[in-house]
Structures are given as C-alpha cells and as structure tokens.
C-alpha cells in the first residue's frame, strides 16, 4: 500500500473505539429492554342461569380466591365490548363498603357477572331496595347475596352505642340504627363473640328485609328470586353462606 493510502494511527484508534462503543451501547440497550411476555387472555365463562348454579359459581370462585388460584374470568377486552351493549348479571351482591371487601375479587368474577351494591354495614334502605328491584325484576337476576364481613366497623359502632357510647353524628346515625336490632339480638342470645354474631345476624336480617319487601316478595314466593345471607372472613378470605 502506498504511503498516501495508509490510514493514520489516530484514525484507526478512533474507529476501533467508536465501533466498540456502538456494540457496547447496543448490548446495554438489549440487556435493559423489558422482556416480552405473552399476555394470557382472561378466560370467559357461560353465566349461570338460576340461583342454584349461581351459588355454585360463587362458591367455586371464592374457593379459587381463597387459595390464591383466581382466574379473573370475563375481564378481557372482548368481554368489555360484549357487555357494552347490555348487562345480564347472574347474582346481586349487597355488601359493605369496606375497602377490604370487593365482590368481584372475593368471588373471582368479571365484568357484567355481578350487580353489586355496597353500603356501610350492608344495610337496607329505600335506595338499596330500589336497586335490587331493578336487577331482580328488570334484569331477571335470580339470586341475591347479602354479604356481611368479619370486623365490620359499622356493626362495631352499633355495639359501642348499645353499650352507652354517644350516637355518631350525621347520617352515620341512620346506619347504626338499622344495625342495632342485630346487636340487641346477639347480646340477648349471649353470643361469645358479640361482633361476629351481630354481623351474621345483621346479614340475615337484611336478607329477610329484602325477601319480604314488595314487590320482591312475589318473586321470592314464585321461586324466581332467591335471597341468602353470607359471611366473609377477612383472615381466611372465605365466604360462608348462612
């Protein structure tokens, strides 16, 4: 090679360095890039058509949840698009507004499966009854579950008031007054755990209110609607139907 065609040593050095730097940068970017994982689609399920199969689906879903085997059915984009045009829930769940209790999680259900109503102490008032009537009579949902839960703050407040504490101010007082009959019954029965017993009794009282309220009573009498109380353990994540 003629001297004029030689690459100066400094130029060779720069090219080697630049080439090595580019390769290193590419290797670093590849190492830092997030791994690509396949997204598993949410499984879909055929909705139960009556109260018996609905209860079975809720029991099975809760068992999966309690065992950390939740499948999160009916939560994909296809389900979202499917229910955008209308709803057909297989169960109505009246439960407490407590942040530790989310029916779709506890029962391992998805979009459009449950018609959920949440209010402190899962108490029944005209708005709650109206909501249940809508789902039961207009959507033909065959099952109502009234779900009380362990360590319920609303029931604990009613117990405090029954023991002589001041009645809470504002609208909280109306919630406490609706729970008070359950507290009084639990105390009269000599319950070993007053709070747990009162929670269970309150759920049963609320279920009875729903089942005997016109026009729902006609649907219950004709077997078109089933109303059941239940209890959720925060410690075990299990639901017990009362």
Structural overview:
By secondary structure, this protein is of the alpha/beta class. The chain folds into two domains: 30 residues; 191 residues, Beta-carbonic Anhydrase, Chain A (3-Layer(aba) Sandwich). Helix content is 48%, strand content 11%. It contains nine helices and five strands; from the N terminus they run αααβαβαβααααββ. It has a five-stranded mixed beta sheet with strand order 2-1-3-4-5, with helices on both faces. A hairpin with a 6-residue loop joins strand 4 and strand 5. The longest helix is centred in the N-terminal third of the chain and has 24 residues. The radius of gyration is 29 Å and the shape is globular.
CATH class of the largest domain: Alpha Beta
What's the count of strands?
5
Strand order in the sheet with the most strands: 2-1-3-4-5
Percent of sequence in beta strands? 5-15%
Distance between the termini: 96 Å
CATH topology of the largest domain: Beta-carbonic Anhydrase, Chain A
Summarize it.
The protein is α/β, with parallel strands linked by helices. The protein has helices at residues 9-32, 51-66, 77-83, 103-106, 126-138, 153-162, 172-188, 194-211, 216-221, and strands at 91-95, 114-118, 143-149, 226-232, 239-241. Helices cover 48% and strands 11% of the residues.
How are the elements arranged and paired?
Layout: H1 9-32, H2 51-66, H3 77-83, E1 91-95, H4 103-106, E2 114-118, H5 126-138, E3 143-149, H6 153-162, H7 172-188, H8 194-211, H9 216-221, E4 226-232, E5 239-241
Parallel strand pairs: 1-2, 1-3, 3-4
Antiparallel strand pairs: 4-5
């Amino acid at each position: 090679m003629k001297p004029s065609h030689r690459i100066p040593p400094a130029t060779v050095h720069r090219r080697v360095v630049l080439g090595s730097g580019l390769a290193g940068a590419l290797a670093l970017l590849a190492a830092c890039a997030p791994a690509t994982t396949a997204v598993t689609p949410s499984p879909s399920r055929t909705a139960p058509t009556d109260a018996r199969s609905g209860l079975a689906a809720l029991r099975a879903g809760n068992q999966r949840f309690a065992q950390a085997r939740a499948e999160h059915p009916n939560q994909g984009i296809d389900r979202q698009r499917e229910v955008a045009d209308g709803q057909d829930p297989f169960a109505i769940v009246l439960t407490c507004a407590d942040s530790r209790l989310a029916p779709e999680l506890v029962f391992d259900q998805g979009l459009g499966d449950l018609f959920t109503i949440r209010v402190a102490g899962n108490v029944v008032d005209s708005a709650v009854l109206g909501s249940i009537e809508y789902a039961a009579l207009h959507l033909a949902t065959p099952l109502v579950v009234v779900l009380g839960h362990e360590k319920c703050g609303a029931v604990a407040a009613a117990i405090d008031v029954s023991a002589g504490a001041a009645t809470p101010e504002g609208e909280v007082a109306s919630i406490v007054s609706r729970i008070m009959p359950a507290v009084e019954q639990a105390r009269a029965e000599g319950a070993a755990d007053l709070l747990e017993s009162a929670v269970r009794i309150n759920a049963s009282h609320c279920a009875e209110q729903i089942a005997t309220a016109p026009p729902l009573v006609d649907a219950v009498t004709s077997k078109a609607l089933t109303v059941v109380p239940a209890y959720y353990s925060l410690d075990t994540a299990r639901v017990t139907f009362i």
